[in-house]
Amino acid sequence: MASRGRPGPRSPSRASACGTNMPQKPDASGETGDAEESLRDLPRWMRLYFYGMHGVTLDVLLSSLQGLLNRRDPKLVGFSSPYLCIMHSLTHFALEKIYSQKRCFRGRPVVFHFVFYPSVFIGLQILIGNIRTLTEQVRLVSGTQLVVHYVLALYYSQVFHRGLAKLRYQPSSFNDLQAKTWPGDRGQSRRPTHSLPGVVRFLFFGMHGFLDEVLFTSVFNLVEKSDQTLSGHTSLWSFLMYGSCSFVVEKLYLHLYFSRAWGTWRRLPIYICFVYTWEFTWGLVLRQFDACSWDYSHYPHNFMGLITLLYLPGVMDGITNNQFYQSS
């Protein structure tokens, strides 16, 4: 993925949509065509994945802040579920289509951004909020919730959709993938050029950590407590922990793979030891302030209740996802 700083040359389809069809000058070298083909809009599956992850992040953020205001809980525990993740993917996709209709409100942007779009957004959020109570009494929405939904609608129309529209995806051909995943001489391997700023990658890693933990805890709740709602939980502190950990693991990946030419199975033990050390350190610090949201004392093979080998599959899954992101 890449962040587009400014729009490129206007394509013929855009020109015809504005009522003109200006022929473009042919480029003998073909560099213009190659550049346009190298960066594409994010594919649908990638947008749906990002939409679900972003929605889960907002669920955790809002529910944890609500717990902080009501119970003064320093653990900042928030909740979401795989059901809500799917619903967020679908509603975000619908909102994407709604946002694309803003061209129908030319000359009336205030009506679109402050009336039409927020109305659709609030309606979808009320629908999501009542997904669990479709067979029961429909929950009423308070004035405070309406205000929160309206503020979120402004965030989506003014920040989220505009930022996402700047992202571009650069698919790799087979030869590029082979060159990227088959390092040559030690220290001579080609490092990937990151177009996304470090802050954006940190946010992505943090949101992905939220999604992983919500899915993982929801499965555990289903197995241990037979909770068919698949409700999962995490903590706002986990966002900082996952974001910073994955950011450092990314640096380890670049160094071990491209500088030392280490294979996957040689790097994996280092990743696992680092992730466990990172989680233990964060948990030890948070415990001093009664802000640690996890306690593995009742699980086998735990150390001080902060880490446990029982979660090793989850750790390996997170590492695998991180490596997939690096390879894409």
Automatic annotation (TrEMBL):
Q: Where is the composition biased (Low complexity)?
A: 1-17
Q: Does the keyword Cell inner membrane apply?
A: no
The regions listed as transmembrane in this protein's record are 111-131, 137-156, 199-223, 235-256, 268-289, 301-319
Q: Where is this region: Disordered?
A: 1-36
Domain of life where this protein originates = Eukaryota
Give yes or no: UniProt keyword Membrane: yes
Q: Name one GO cellular component term.
A: membrane
Q: Membrane topology type, per the record?
A: Multi-pass membrane protein
Location within or outside the cell: Membrane
Q: Which UniProt keywords apply?
A: Membrane, Transmembrane, Transmembrane helix
**Family stated for the protein in its record:** Belongs to the TMEM229 family.
* Protein name, per record: Transmembrane protein 229A
